[in-house]
């Protein structure tokens, strides 16, 4: 196992966590095995009492290929440890269920990915956890909602789909004063621009399906934090409930991590150029992107994140009719609901990802009928702009 502690992020992205078998393979070995054989009965007993580094028992608990992924992402995020999961939602639900019990009080920001909202509202509620929602951008609401007995705070550091940026250092300070743990769903910040660990987040979760794979190939997720929390609370819950990452997916996600920084920085630069070019377009009433000076949390985003992200949103003046006409006219940008992919993607949240929400909730979150979420990919920026402008002109 390599010691990557002195390396810069791009070196860690390529070599972090690497182990080589006796064959000295270049690429990470893919250990497609569900279990492991022991040299003798006493070794099996010893491993069940306490397994050392690189001693595995069963792939639901851990696997050599998955371990390389966990170590590499932990090193990139600046966390002591990580547990890889089958999907982003396995990470979110695993983190919340591992840390909460009946009678606990949880405070969460209201602007959440639909499935996160389901876990908080429907699942935790069913098991006797009291969940209170606040406007994540309003520190006074966090201050008022977080109580001495609050167990946990949950938020998306940059919200989906309206790209609100939460003042992470301040929310963490309020939560920690009350003794509450802070769990951050950090998908939109990406491991490249995230400083959540530096700001003191206790648990950071990613859907690796998004930028970490970044090529639309597989599902994955990861829960990151201190060794004490990951091995003491998260691992026991995850290994017995079954949301483990497959070794094949870990192998693909490792190649994703290798190029993550290069891809995300290129995508963010394109997103910045596109946001600037479309702001003020006659067919668009508003462009939402943390990299634009007009964004309500522009200064905050610059202060607490390493970059603006790769996703922007825009509100078309003609509502749903205009939004659908715009999407149908796109030739390069695909209509889908993923994000962080090498292929640019347009999404109409009101009728797809956020369809389930009642109208008043949509209004509260700024999910209008004209809102388009645009995940900027790796195509040529000029080609993308030409595609977007031609589609806007046809509205
Ligand atoms: C996609 C997403 C998830 C869920 O991830 P899956 O890999 O699809 O399970 C959770 N949170 C956010 C913010 C997301 O964008």
Describe the structure.
The protein is of the alpha/beta class. It has two domains: 9-258, 3-Layer(aba) Sandwich (Aspartate Aminotransferase, domain 2); 260-394, Aspartate Aminotransferase, domain 1. The chain is built from 15 helices and twelve strands. It has helices at 9-15, 41-49, 64-77, 88-99, 114-126, 139-145, 168-177, 190-193, 196-199, 227-241, 247-278, 298-304, 319-329, 359-365, 381-393, and strands spanning 81-85, 105-109, 130-134, 150-156, 181-185, 203-207, 221-225, 284-288, 311-316, 334-335, 345-347, 371-375. It has a seven-stranded mixed β-sheet, with helices on both faces. It has a five-stranded mixed β-sheet with strand order 8-9-12-11-10. α13 packs across α15. The radius of gyration is 21 Å and the shape is globular. The mean pLDDT is 96.
Structure characteristics:
395 residues, alpha/beta, Aspartate Aminotransferase, domain 2, Aspartate Aminotransferase, domain 1, 7-stranded mixed β-sheet, 15 helices, 42% helix, binds pyridoxal-5'-phosphate, EC 2.5.1.-, carbon-sulfur lyase activity, methionine biosynthesis, O-succinylhomoserine sulfhydrylase
